[in-house]
Specification:
With 296 residues, the chain is an alpha/beta fold. The protein has two domains: 171 residues, P-loop containing nucleotide triphosphate hydrolases (Rossmann fold, 3-Layer(aba) Sandwich); 89 residues. The protein has 15 helices and seven strands. A five-stranded parallel sheet has the order 2-5-6-1-7, with helices on both faces. A two-stranded antiparallel ribbon has the order 3-4. Helix 13 runs antiparallel to helix 14. The longest helix is centred in the C-terminal third of the chain and has 19 residues. The chain is globular.
């Protein structure tokens, strides 16, 4: 059995079934919101296949390679340390990518014989951050996978992965965590905003300083003035996805505390939903911001 990852009964049953049957696919895709157990499940699953779970969790197993995105201001070993400290949420919306050089290095290791068992496993964190060239190189690996090699892709935004990569993976969906379960896990009664998972919740509550800024721009300034006077650097300072998420939670909070009417909340939610659709369609951040400035 997969260990007690909380709130993910269906993924646990699916992974336990794969282990029981002994039919390991060449590629799995774990997808769902940040902080719902995807990475922990991948580590546990790897441990069930090749043993030595403690080595795997420490990142020292020679047959398990963890591929993190390359962040502008952090070395790879620093990213793993941040992950171990439970602070990966701080990097969640930072600019990052998985380069073709990283995939080529992975290709090299994939064709080496395992050192301690029968399998080599590659965990690709935020797999949707692969560049176009990296995706093409990785696809070649999936088309002719080496023997006894398992790729586990971990992603939040599957729409950013190519259809050909998606078609060659067994996908397992991880559900959002309830507020009550997150409270139980975090044991923090001071939480104001809940995201879909632990990482989102921690991130939202670590960015409270932007609340006054967003409140001033979107709720205290008329559209014609905010378009004229908006701070030009907001697009660079605030990742558009984080801004949309934070605005959504602010509107929920304002409605709950009767600071806006139900009609106003419904109208804003409608426009925020549309803005999310634009974001997922790869519309530029600047255009999404102007849309929000006009509509909210």
């Amino acid at each position: 059995m997969i260990s007690d990852i909380q709130g993910q009964e269906i993924p646990k049953k699916l992974l336990s079934s794969i282990i029981k049957k002994g039919k390991i696919p060449s590629a799995l895709l774990f997808y769902g919101p940040p902080g719902v157990g995807k990475f922990s499940s991948a580590l546990d699953f790897s441990g069930k296949i090749i043993g030595n779970p403690r080595k795997i969790k420490r990142g020292t197993h020679p047959d398990v390679m963890m591929v993190f995105p390359e962040f502008d201001k952090y070395e790879a070993n620093e990213v793993l340390k941040i992950r171990k400290k439970g602070e990966y949420y701080k990097l969640r919306y930072s600019k990052a990518s998985i380069s073709i050089d990283t995939i080529r290095a992975m290709q090299h290791y994939a064709y080496l014989n395992p050192m301690e068992g029968k399998w080599r496993i590659f965990l690709i964190i935020q797999a949707e951050n692969m560049t176009a060239n990296a995706s093409d190189a990785f696809l070649k690996l999936l088309e002719e996978p080496p023997m006894n090699v398992l790729f586990i892709l971990i992603a939040t935004h599957t729409h950013l992965l190519t259809e050909t990569i998606l078609s060659r993976t067994l996908t397992i969906r991880f559900q959002p965590l309830s507020h009550s379960l997150q409270m139980e896990i975090l044991k923090d009664k001071a939480i104001k905003y809940f995201g879909r998972g632990i990482e989102e919740t921690l991130l939202l509550n670590s960015k409270m300083e932007i609340e006054d800024e967003l409140d001033e721009i979107f709720f205290k300034t008329r559209a014609k003035h905010r378009i004229k006077d908006w701070k030009k650097d907001i697009e660079e300072r605030r990742n558009i996805e984080l801004l949309l998420l934070y605005l959504w939670k602010m509107v929920e909070d304002k409605y709950k505390n009767t600071k806006i009417t139900a009609d106003a909340a419904y109208r804003i939610f409608f426009y925020l939903k549309r803005a999310y659709e634009y974001y997922y369609s790869n519309i530029t951040s600047e255009k999404i911001l102007f849309y929000l400035f006009l509509k909210i």
